[in-house]
Amino acid sequence: MADKDDEAKGEGKKKGGSKKLLIIIVAAVVVLIGGGAGAYFAFFAGSGTTDAHPEPTPSAVVVADAITVNLADGHYLKIAIGLQTTTNAAETVDTSKALDLVISQFSNLEVAELSTNKQREAEKAELTEKVVKAYTEEKKEYVMAVYFTEFVIQ
């Protein structure tokens, strides 16, 4: 009889020990999942927004005086541009850098290179990229677009 009582006590300890072990395992899994989720949100989920800067907000358009650029074969391009400034820009924006980039972009091009809208838009997109880069300092854009306000080929 004593053997049966000892066996019953041993099985009770095993069942109680199994329940404790199961509770410890479940608790460990919950802690690991919670820690993993916390680490993910802390290090990875917000990382895309920390490096990006907000989109610039448009402000006034600054129109530069028209200039004449020499094209190839004795032709000329009279061009005037407008710079779409952002709220980061000062009240007045010096257009000298932009006009210098216009001269560099269009000098000595063939008339055929500017004769279609598609070609003009390609040149404008390239110019806009250069101008925005020239007017960006410390991740602040001061100019966000370039507009042709005059475009005459002679």
From TrEMBL:
BP GO terms, sorted: bacterial-type flagellum-dependent swarming motility; chemotaxis
Keywords from the named record: Cell membrane, Cell projection, Chemotaxis, Cilium, Flagellar rotation, Flagellum, Membrane, Transmembrane, Transmembrane helix
Compartment(s) of residence: Cell membrane
Keyword field contains Heme: no
GO cellular component: bacterial-type flagellum basal body; plasma membrane
One Pfam family recorded for the sequence: FliL
Function: Controls the rotational direction of flagella during chemotaxis.
Superkingdom of origin: Bacteria
Family: Belongs to the FliL family.
Organism the protein comes from: Cryptosporangium phraense
Membrane-crossing segments per the record: 21-43
Record's protein name: Flagellar protein FliL
Membrane topology of the entry: Single-pass membrane protein
